[in-house]
C-alpha cells in the first residue's frame, strides 16, 4: 500500500514538473505568428483570379477531351461506372481541401489542387504523372490490354498538351503559393 502511494506521488510530481516546464517554455518562446495573412492573400488572389480561372478552363478542356476519348473506348456498362467514378472525383474537389485555411481553400477550389492523390484525375500533377491514374482505371474498370494501352496513349497525349500549355503560360496559381511559405527565420 505504501509503495502504491509513493508511485502515485512520484508520477504526480513528474507530471507537474512537465506542466510547469511547458508553461515556462511558452512564456520564454511564444508560438510564432501565422506565416501569411488571409487578407493579403485574398487581395492578391482577387487580382489573379481571372487568369487562374482562364488557365484552369484550358486544363479542364484538356481533361474533358481525354475523359471523352477514354469513355469512347469502354463498353456501355463499364462507361457508366467510369463516368460515376469521375463524377465522384469532381464532387470532392468543389470546395478545396477541408483542412486548408479558408483563403487557401478558395484558391485551390478555383485553381485546382497542385498535388493530391495521383490515382484521381483532378490534381495538376496528375496531368504529368499519369500511371497511378491509369492503374486505378485498370483496377476498377475491367480494361482489356488493348483498352489499357489506348488509355495510356490518350494520357500521354494529355501530358504533352498540358506540358505545352505550361511551357506557353506559367500557371497563375503558382505565383500565389510562394507567399504561403513562412518568412525566413531571423
Characterize the structure shown.
The protein is mainly α. Helix content is 69%, strand content 0%. The longest helix is centred in the N-terminal third of the chain and has 36 residues, at 38-73. The model has no long low-confidence stretch (mean pLDDT 77).
Task: Summarize this structure briefly.
With 186 residues, this protein is mostly helical.
Please count the beta strands (DSSP E, at least 2 residues each): 0
What Rg is obtained from the alpha carbons, in whole angstroms? 25 Å
Low-pLDDT segments, ≥5 res:
none
Proportion of β residues? under 5%
- Can you give the mean pLDDT? 77
Shape: elongated
Helix amount, in percent?
Answer: 55-70%
Number of distinct helices = 7
What layout of secondary structure does this protein have?
Layout: H1 2-28, H2 38-73, H3 76-92, H4 102-111, H5 131-140, H6 145-168, H7 173-176
Helix pairs in contact: 2-4, 2-6, 5-6
Key words describing this protein structure:
186 residues; mainly alpha; elongated
Amino acid at each position: 500500500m505504501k509503495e502504491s502511494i509513493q508511485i502515485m506521488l512520484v508520477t504526480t510530481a513528474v507530471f507537474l514538473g512537465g506542466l510547469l516546464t511547458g508553461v515556462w517554455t511558452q512564456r520564454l518562446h511564444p508560438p510564432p505568428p501565422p506565416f501569411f495573412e488571409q487578407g493579403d492573400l485574398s487581395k492578391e488572389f482577387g487580382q489573379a483570379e481571372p487568369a487562374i480561372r482562364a488557365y484552369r478552363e484550358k486544363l479542364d478542356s484538356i481533361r474533358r477531351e481525354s475523359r471523352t476519348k477514354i469513355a469512347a473506348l469502354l463498353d456501355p456498362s463499364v462507361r457508366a461506372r467510369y463516368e460515376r467514378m469521375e463524377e465522384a472525383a469532381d464532387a470532392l474537389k468543389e470546395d478545396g481541401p477541408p483542412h486548408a485555411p479558408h483563403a487557401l481553400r478558395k484558391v485551390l477550389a478555383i485553381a485546382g489542387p497542385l498535388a493530391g492523390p495521383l490515382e484521381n484525375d483532378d490534381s495538376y500533377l496528375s496531368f504529368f504523372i499519369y500511371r497511378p491514374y491509369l492503374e486505378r482505371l485498370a483496377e476498377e474498370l475491367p480494361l482489356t490490354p488493348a483498352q489499357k494501352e489506348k488509355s495510356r496513349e490518350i494520357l500521354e497525349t494529355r501530358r504533352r498538351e498540358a506540358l505545352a500549355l505550361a511551357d506557353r503560360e506559367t500557371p497563375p496559381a503558382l505565383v500565389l503559393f510562394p507567399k504561403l511559405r513562412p518568412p525566413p527565420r531571423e
